[in-house]
Amino acid sequence: MITIEEALSTILAHINPLKSEYFELADCLGRVLAQDITARDDIPPFANSAMDGFAVRAGDTLGASLEQPVTLTVLEDLPAGRNTDTEVGAGQAIRIMTGAPLPAGADSVVKVEDSALANEVGEEQVMIFHEAGKGEHVRLAGESVKKSELVLKSGVILRPAEIGMLAALGYPRVSVVPPPRVTILSTGDELLDIEEELKAGKIRDCNRYSLAAMVNRYGGKPASLGIAPDRKDDLKKILSIALTTDLVITSGGVSVGKYDLVREAIGELGGELLIDRVSMKPGKPLIFSLVGGVPVFSLPGNPVSVLVSFIQFVRPALLKMQGKNRLRKPEVEAILAEDCDERTDRTHLVRVNLEMKDGINYVRLAGPQGSGILRSLVLSNGLMIIPPNRGPFKSGERVNVMLTEAEEIE
Ligand code: AMP
Ligand code: MG
Prior knowledge:
The chain is an alpha/beta fold. The chain has helices at about 5-15, 160-170, 205-215, 230-240, 260-270, 305-320, 375-380; strands at about 20-25, 35-40, 50, 55, 70-80, 90-95, 110, 115, 125-130, 140, 150, 175, 180-185, 190, 205, 220-230, 245-250, 270-275, 280, 285-290, 295-300, 330-335, 345-355, 360-365, 380-385, 400-405. It has a 6-stranded mixed sheet, with no helix packed on it. Strands 16-13-17-21-20-18 form a 6-stranded mixed sheet, with helices on both faces. Helix 1 packs across helix 6 (about 305-320) and helix 4 packs across helix 5. The protein is elongated. The two termini are about 30 Å apart. Bound molecules: adenosine monophosphate and magnesium ion.
């Protein structure tokens, strides 16, 4: 049986980034940019005030202090969004708001906190308590971005800051790698839709929902094809509908039972089986195939296996399709806070809970490790990686843990 690493490299060798498309900026969060972005204008486009205060000539404020203020005549108010032709002359000031263009004649801004109004009959006077340096509290045109400059390179992931920058540069739409369209199918005669009443021998289909959530989490667009019965012809029919999308995920029906018919259905549809079983626990019965060029992940049916295999294999494939390069979940070293004997002859991905105390990660099992026990996945925040035939481990030993819930730029 092949290892997790071997399986992953086979899978990734058959996954290509999707062709880029233009998207509205509001739909671009997390997408990979597929064009270089140059600035059409300076940002800011004009010199403006960084403070609410008074636009002055720095030379007029020479020696100004709390004890010896300088008094200037206020010519007018200049709010943000307005322009003025009035020039600030010697002994004069314009009351200016943050973001308003610096008027002609002025070369610095005294903030309102360093001034006091001294109203006189007829004209307004302001006392300045601070010797302004030239350019103080002035944002220069182009200080953030210069016109024609390359601002964002093709290949970057668009975070909120990049989205804001694109808006500031006047790009309502940009070329990005689109979200993969992913079809999800549950298989099994025992499955009921979650709306249905439980009946003898039946269980609710949870994989379709957890898989759709995973697809959403990692930037894909999930669509559900419902539940397929354990009949080959039905499986073939439903699978062939799914093959119009970028990626297909099925769950169940890939083990060695008499009614595990997904393998045969894929074969009869002309699919090329590239992986059949991986040396991991949970998640051993996994098939990866290309059917008519479309990658198909046939995941095991157990609710834990399905999610652990998704994290290991589907997630990196989905990210690669979106043009991303950082495909691995982060791993950390942790100290076992209890004894643990979870030996198997495969790589065991053990549901654990990781907690940091005084800068050190401590790890405990999140519950029983049966591959149907979704509860312990609910209670976990990581997967401890135990290589084949290793253990038992004693409390205090060092282990590696994959952070399944880590905040990251996916
Ligand atoms: P299978 O590989 O089809 O034999 O499924 C393995 C186990 O997972 C069986 O106990 C199934 O009932 C269960 N199972 C399969 N699909 C689902 C599903 N969509 N939701 C919940 N349990 C499932
Ligand atoms: Mg089944």
